[in-house]
Amino acid sequence: MPNRQTSEENTMALRVPKAELPAELRQNLIKQLGLTLGVLVVLYVAVGAGRLLARLSGRASKSRRNTDMLSA
Fold it and tell me: Burial level of 24, CB count in 10 A (0-12/13-18/19+)?
């Protein structure tokens, strides 16, 4: 059994040290990531709301409704 763990070995430890980023760069990356995630959430909700409104208004074609049901 070559994959047996010894008591001294910590398999969850990082094998490569973390890169240190300047504080200003780190904060800018966090802001950009937050903005990107916010935009994705808004788009996801808008598409869902558009589909719901199309269904409720009866403008969605029958075939489109069937494909949405299969993918949900």
Answer: exposed
